[in-house]
Design goal:
This protein is an all-alpha fold and 194 residues long. It is built from ten helices and no strands.
């Protein structure tokens, strides 16, 4: 049993290293490459994970989860709106700067939307940024819509450019989109005294 856990952990560790080494270009990573680097038989990947794709998805979820947990505010913000805009911009930029990994994570979440998936963990992280008293229901709805709108914009960036004119290859357009989105949500979802 313990040997299986160690083998599984080693496969995850090696796969995560390869994902980072190949900058998220998972098409360049083969099951044979993973097995060789982990010094395990090729069949153990299927035994422990079912497929290379499921292994990659699990590793990507861990990478994204680590990023979400490690996000720290380095600047003090006076309002929830400023704080949320800064954090959401950071996350949105991460999606585009690590597009292959982000795409796998988001699509994996859509296929298996659970309480511990990266989408929900991101929402929980955004919830912690509210310092002013708003209802938990409004807070939950706000962060759900914010996260979903960011994910759809990322996955459909070409269509978003056609619909709204935002060119997400430009960081200033990404920041403008997030600013507009947060403004819209604060006006429509949250009643604040700021």
């Amino acid at each position: 049993m313990n040997k299986n856990v160690n083998v599984k952990s080693r496969i995850i560790e090696v796969t995560t290293e390869l994902i980072e080494q190949y900058n998220g270009n998972i098409k360049d990573i083969t099951a044979r490459m993973i097995a060789t680097k982990a010094n395990v038989g090729l069949g153990l990947i299927n035994y422990h994970f079912g497929s290379k794709e499921k292994l990659i998805t699990e590793c990507v979820q861990r990478i994204i989860g680590k990023v979400v947990k490690e996000f720290h505010m380095t600047k003090q913000y006076e309002t929830d709106k400023e704080r949320l805009t800064a954090c959401a911009t950071y996350v949105f930029n991460f999606l585009f700067e690590h597009s292959a990994i982000s795409r796998v994570s988001i699509l994996g979440d859509f296929q298996n939307y659970t309480g511990n998936c990266n989408s929900v963990l991101t929402q929980q992280g955004f919830s912690l940024l509210f310092m002013n008293g708003i209802s938990n229901e409004d807070k939950s709805m706000f962060v759900f819509i914010l996260t979903a709108a960011m994910q759809v914009a990322f996955l459909g960036s070409g269509t978003i450019k056609q619909l709204f004119g935002y060119d997400f290859t430009k960081t200033e357009d990404r920041a403008a989109y997030i600013g507009k989105l947060v403004d819209f949500l604060f006006e429509g979802v949250v009643q604040i005294d700021e």
